[in-house]
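Researcher: Predict the fold of Glycosyltransferase family 25 (LPS biosynthesis protein).
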Amino acid sequence: MQQLPQPWPLPEPERFAAIDGRRVATPPQWRAGNGAWGCYRSHLLILEKCLLEGIDSYVVFEDDAGFREGFVERFNQFVSELPEDWGLAYLGGQHLYAGKHPPAKVDEHVYRPYNVNRTHAFMVRGRPAMKTLYRHLTWSNWHQKHHIDHHLGRLIQRRYQALVQGKNVEKESIAVYVPGRWMVGQLPTKSNICGRKWSQTRFFNDAKNADHADSPFFAVLGPHRAGTSCVAMVMHHLGVHMGNELGGYEATGGGEAVGLAQLCEKAMKFPAVDPTMGDAQLTKQLKSWIVSRKAEANRDKTVAGGKYPHLCRFAEHLYAGIGNSLRVIAVDRPIEASIKSLQDRSNRHRGQWFSGTDDECEKLQRSLLAHREQFLEEHPDVPVLRVDFAELVTAPENVILQLIDFLGIEPTEEEVESAINHVNPDLRKFG
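Model: Structure tokens for Glycosyltransferase family 25 (LPS biosynthesis protein) follow.
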């Protein structure tokens, strides 16, 4: 109560004694834990109290709600721009699945979300909306291990799917809105639901930046056998988040995220030179993968990157998906050497999915390089760092320092040493 912003723009808050899930018996079908049960029952009791007492609107702040500076001005501005049909409005939360389904802008400060997680600050208005909410919360078709915010997220999705995606959604829904930037976060206290404790107030991804558009993504672009694996692994050693499971052809590590590699091969199976997947679908899937890696990188206080040769061909799709957050690390090696190296690899692995004829290998390599260069020429606004592979393997310290500066990171001395040690001068088998 002492940390409420002043002047307070709402009626005097009324304390509501929450249900302690440890002191009551949870139903046998409940699998989400005692804390989550207490949270669900507490919110349901507040809603029931309002319905029974004829209260037509209410606002909930959980006891760990922390307010952003300028809350009063932000709140008044948001409320003044809320559409007339609003029934549920979040003041704080976390956007889920924002990579595939970004919040839709309604006004300068108002967005329609796809799925909002967390219940530490929200407003409900109107008996029709309250009754819809009550029916949804007491509906037995909960997903196993879902908490109340997960279940509410399914309700929120319906209106988005109907109005933004044009789907025929017959189940009842509520008009839900969020501000462009969250104005209420969660204080650094221990959660009695998951048991974790944080050191600072947490504000999650905003509607304006639900896809982490202000966080860079570093795409390592180059044909096969051009030194991109070496660069990607150097980045990995420097602490760049290149994916959750890295694979690749190289014995020392290819620096290729398995999920990204699978996506690229699904879109354009080696040794094809053009994708079979539609442009819109490919752009959406690439963006979704990148947004998830950005979120993980932000969590770990680093930057995200990705490497796979197909990305040369998909550079336009990358740019269409993530726009000005794209950064390119173009790895240069004489194309004849890259072609020879890929042909040699293919000849040693005849019958494998990653082998092709000499002509197929040459056609693919030249196509990848041409598409990369065409993209860079047509988009001079995209920041680019060119890495000469020959210089990398002969003077790795110099190139790695340039790379660190371009990435904008501060690796430890151990990470820098590990990155330098990864570079193997014997890699230059074909020039």
